[in-house]
Amino acid sequence: MSKKGENIYKRNDGRWEGRYKSGFDKNGKTKYKSVYSKTYGECKQKLLIAKNIQSNKKSNVKLCLTIKEIILVWIKNICINVKQSTLNTYVRG
Predict the structure, then answer these.
(1) How does pLDDT run across 58-81, given as a tens digit for each residue?
(2) pTM of the entire structure?
């Protein structure tokens, strides 16, 4: 039987389904992928392999941003939540 938090469930068609996070869409919503198998143990193994592959993909991503680019993105995101005078201080500072 599946344990709480594993995201492994028995489907109505008799197969086991394991779900894992595969990233985010352009709106920031979490995307999921699934693995299927006939037995719980096999599904657990497939899910573990899929999660490892997914984490390796994430660790190979390198960002090539300068400090200036990071600050400009930060200012664009913060300008919604602060007063104009505070924003002017951030830009001048």
Answers:
(1) 655 566 778 888 888 888 888 788
(2) 0.56
Query: Does the pLDDT of residue 48 top 70, yes or no?
Result: yes
Name residues whose C-beta falls within 8 Å of residue 1's C-beta, 6 or more positions apart in sequence: 40
Question: Alpha-carbon distance 53 to 46, whole Å?
Answer: 11
Nearest by Cα to 53 from 17, 7, 87, 21: 21
pLDDT at position 68 is 83
Q: How far is CA 29 from CA 22, 23, 24, 62, 71, in A?
A: 11, 8, 5, 22, 24
Whole-number Å distance between alpha carbons of 15 and 32? 18
DSSP letters spanning 48-84: HHHHHHHHHHHHT------HHHHHHHHHHHHTTTS-H
Q: How far apart are CA 86 and CA 69, in angstroms?
A: 20
